[in-house]
From TrEMBL:
<dbReference type="GO" id="GO:0004497">
    <property type="term" value="F:monooxygenase activity"/>
</dbReference>
<dbReference type="GO" id="GO:0020037">
    <property type="term" value="F:heme binding"/>
</dbReference>
<keyword id="KW-0472">Membrane</keyword>
<keyword id="KW-0408">Iron</keyword>
<dbReference type="Pfam" id="PF00067">
    <property type="entry name" value="p450"/>
</dbReference>
<dbReference type="GO" id="GO:0016020">
    <property type="term" value="C:membrane"/>
</dbReference>
<feature type="transmembrane region" description="Helical">
    <location>
        <begin position="12"/>
        <end position="29"/>
    </location>
</feature>
<keyword id="KW-0812">Transmembrane</keyword>
<keyword id="KW-0503">Monooxygenase</keyword>
<keyword id="KW-1133">Transmembrane helix</keyword>
<dbReference type="InterPro" id="IPR001128">
    <property type="entry name" value="Cyt_P450"/>
</dbReference>
<dbReference type="InterPro" id="IPR002401">
    <property type="entry name" value="Cyt_P450_E_grp-I"/>
</dbReference>
<comment type="similarity">
    <text>Belongs to the cytochrome P450 family.</text>
</comment>
<dbReference type="InterPro" id="IPR050665">
    <property type="entry name" value="Cytochrome_P450_Monooxygen"/>
</dbReference>
<keyword id="KW-0479">Metal-binding</keyword>
<dbReference type="GO" id="GO:0016705">
    <property type="term" value="F:oxidoreductase activity, acting on paired donors, with incorporation or reduction of molecular oxygen"/>
</dbReference>
<feature type="binding site" description="axial binding residue">
    <location>
        <position position="477"/>
    </location>
    <ligand>
        <name>heme</name>
    </ligand>
</feature>
Length: 535
């Protein structure tokens, strides 16, 4: 009996000692080791304090816009004011801590250029962020790492080449024309032929309708409930402080968490219903008249992977939940293909309202390209000739791009350029500041100058890789062709049909809600274009 008690005693002590060692390694030794590796390479930053790192200082730092900064630019320094404050102290490359998490802030074009050529999946999405966003995006392409990301990338990439996007132009134009009809009715019903319109709600419906038709063979009505629930999840998740590495208490079953997971289950059911309807439709047609859209390719690709997986030849691990994989891929496409695109058009229209001379330049270009006939943007050759429109879009996405931050995690030790980055390092970029970097964009970096893109992105700045509305490197947005084409059609049609200027009721307050949103909406005074004026 005594021998047994001694064995139990020593076993318990070994478990305690092992647990303490593991805890010390995770809480103290690993963070110090990461910081030491960076410090030896000349990378410094604010000194962390145990156990919260630099969180206290982050919460105390107040916005400090540079002297002489335009009032419309103050929001840039208010979103995450510590990024700019620490940049002034430590330069464009520094390290900071949130608890046990060690971060590297990057605002250095040369390093981003080096990072952009890294094809290894070891420079992946941030794992703790993936967990926080799981209810909204699951393990879809926007958040996946490793073999799951490789499989999804290969599955989706070919379906978003320009050759496929060209077949979707009709759906894009059809949806845009519906919004034009709605705004024309608003103008007709107004007293002086000028309607005040809060544009983002209509543009959101427009982008949701386009992604539904072009990629899922349905319309906005069928996807409406999916979008509503994804938006509700996004709103609730944006209230948390987990995104930049703050303490994650998402495991606590509070009211918001219960509501988030309820919405997540509802989204999954709604998307699964669309998938099953498609599978039933395929069976009724004996697979002879199958759709040729993205949803069909996802279903077929996952079904093929399931067969390979069963024989041990698949990309994914055996036992992977294939139904959930389809749902998660669809959620990523629904979210990325609607929300960010709508916001891109919203901010472009805001800038065109502030700089109305560019509205006229676009209309003139459309007239010269299409002649006297009403323009049909389904002609890809003529669409590609609208260079001024393209310049406005690129410049708008530079100054008010929907992406607020860009993050990566080193899933293994990596050598990037002249730097050795240890495993477990979180890399952050604050896109609005990066897109206003005078070292890369010149002394007029804060100004709206579409002409800087007259010779394309490579002629607009020193490091084109530091232009991040679509990310960079191997994790570059696969839907770039789709998104830019959609924005071009929607914005071109709206500018050609309407004149608009800022409403006196507009309040300029860009805010972060994962994406860059107008906190109080964008209100424009909209009137019909008189194409006969001046003839």
């Amino acid at each position: 009996m005594e021998i047994a008690m001694n064995k139990l005693y020593w076993t318990v002590w070994m478990i305690v000692i092992t647990s303490v060692i593991i805890l010390l390694e995770k809480v103290l030794l690993k963070p110090r080791r990461i910081r030491s590796v960076l410090e030896k390479q000349g990378i410094k930053g604010p000194k962390p304090s145990f156990p919260f790192g630099n969180i206290s200082e982050m919460q105390q730092i107040r916005p400090q816009p540079p002297a002489g900064a335009d009032s419309t630019e103050e929001w840039v320094y208010s979103l995450f004011p510590y990024f700019e404050t620490w940049k002034q102290r430590y330069g464009s490359l520094y390290t900071y801590s949130t608890g046990i998490k060690q971060h590297l802030y990057v605002e250095k074009g040369e390093l981003i250029k080096d990072m952009s050529v890294v094809m290894s999946p070891d420079l992946g999405r941030v794992e703790y962020l993936n967990k926080a966003l799981d209810p909204m995006l699951g393990d879809g392409i926007l958040r996946a790492n490793g073999k799951s990301w490789i499989f999804q990338r290969n599955l989706i990439m070919a379906e978003l080449f320009m050759s496929k996007v060209k077949t979707m132009l009709g759906d894009m134009e059809e949806s845009a024309l519906e919004i034009i009809k709605k705004w024309e009715r608003c103008i007709t019903e107004s007293k002086e032929g000028i309607a005040e319109i809060v544009i983002e709600s209509d543009l959101k419906v427009l982008s949701e309708d386009i992604i539904s038709k072009a990629c899922f063979g349905s319309d906005y009505t069928q996807g409406k409930h999916i979008f509503e629930r994804l938006n509700a999840i996004q709103a609730k998740l944006s209230k948390t402080s987990t995104l930049l590495g703050f303490l994650n208490l998402s495991f606590l079953p509070n009211k918001d968490r219960r509501e988030i997971w309820k919405l997540k289950k509802e989204v999954d059911v709604l998307i699964m219903n669309i998938i099953r309807d498609r599978e039933i439709e395929n069976q009724k047609n004996n697979n002879n008249k199958k759709h040729n859209d993205l949803l069909q390719k996802i279903i077929e690709g996952v079904a093929n992977e399931k067969l390979l997986n069963a024989s041990g030849k698949g990309t994914l691990k055996a036992g992977h939940d294939m139904n959930q994989l389809i749902i998660d891929i669809c959620k990523s496409i629904y979210f990325a293909g609607s929300e960010s695109t709508a916001l891109s058009v919203v901010w472009a229209m805001y800038l065109l309202a502030v700089y109305p001379e560019w509205q006229q330049r676009i209309r003139t270009e459309i007239s010269e390209t299409f002649g006297n006939l009403p323009p049909s943007f389904t002609d890809i050759t003529k669409l590609n000739q609208l260079k001024k429109l393209q310049m406005v879009i690129l410049e708008s996405m530079r100054i008010y791009g929907p992406a607020v931050t860009n993050s990566r995690e080193t899933l293994a030790e990596m050598k990037i350029g002249n730097l050795v980055l240890p495993k477990g390092l979180y890399i952050w970029m604050f896109v609005p500041l990066l897109h206003r970097d005078t070292d890369n964009w010149g002394p007029d970096a804060t100004e709206f100058k579409p002409e800087r893109f007259a010779n394309g992105l490579s002629g607009a700045c020193k490091y084109p890789q530091a232009y991040l509305p679509f990310g960079y490197g191997s994790r570059h947005c696969l839907g770039q062709n789709f998104t830019l084409t959609e924005i071009k059609i929607v914005l071109g049609l709206l500018v050609n049909n309407f004149e608009f200027k800022l409403s006196p009721n507009y309040v300029h307050c860009p805010a972060s809600n994962f994406l860059l949103v107008p906190k109080y909406g964008v209100k424009l005074l909209v009137s019909k274009v008189d194409h006969n004026k001046g003839k």
